[in-house]
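Pipeline run #58 for the internal structure catalog. This entry was flagged by the ingest filter as a single-chain record with no existing model, so it goes straight to prediction. Upstream metadata was stripped on purpose; only the residue string is passed forward. Reviewer on rotation: M.T. Logging verbosity set to normal.
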Amino acid sequence: MQAPDPAAAAGRDRLGPLIVTIFGLYARGEDNWLSVASVVQLMAELGVEAQAVRSSISRLKRRGVVRSDRREGAAGYALAEATLEMLAEGDARIFERRRATVEDGWLVVVFSVPESEREKRHALRTSLTQLGFGTATPGVWVAPGNLATETRRTLERRGLSEYVDIFTGHHFAFGDLRSKVRAWWDLDELADLYADFLRRHRPELDVGDITPEQAFQLYVPMLTQWRRLPYSDPGLPLSLLPPGWNGVTAEALFEELNTTLSAPAREHALAVIHKL
């Protein structure tokens, strides 16, 4: 059985991504558990009504992202094992991402799936898209070479490795590599995603002194939006991107906001969790 993907499952639900962010940030340090009451309270501080939160968590449960877990008489949820593994891998890409260079070379994935297993073909395309691969031709996908280990682990975990060959190497010939990168990835869409992140969150640098509760209210939506970007943009070499690439500015903004907001946001979230 293919492991559920928390980002894909949550993405079909407007509130799901916020809830997954809260669990990813705060449940893992609390023995992988949050009470329903604490999630409802934390989401209320983000302006979401209790019934909507409960409905969204139920959808995440049906999709295998979380599981029910009652402890000491309190109703709650824990992250599924597959979700924990994916979030652990996501931490490295989100918080420790290294932008690739041309010297890292390229990762090429070629796959062939029998017509009778069409769902595997869809799963492969979805997985490669979520990893940030670009499409060279149908069935041939390309990514920076430094994603090799992550790609292998992801395809193995999702039971897709038997359909795939993975190669690493360098672009030898022919054509202009900058032009090919623009054809393999939708750079205009990426630039728009970064521009939206900057527009929404740059003003948060100027809010001045804030309380832990206010930090939480800023941090969780900011991180939820950012989580998508390191997967849409796999860290393409700057030398192959348009001059003045706004992804660099967005990365710097994320790092500054993460440094400023994460600790007080955590302080507030844990106070709520331990109280309830």
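catalog note: Confidence is low (pLDDT under 50) at residues 1-12.
catalog note: Residues 185-275 form one domain.
status: ready for reviewer M.T.
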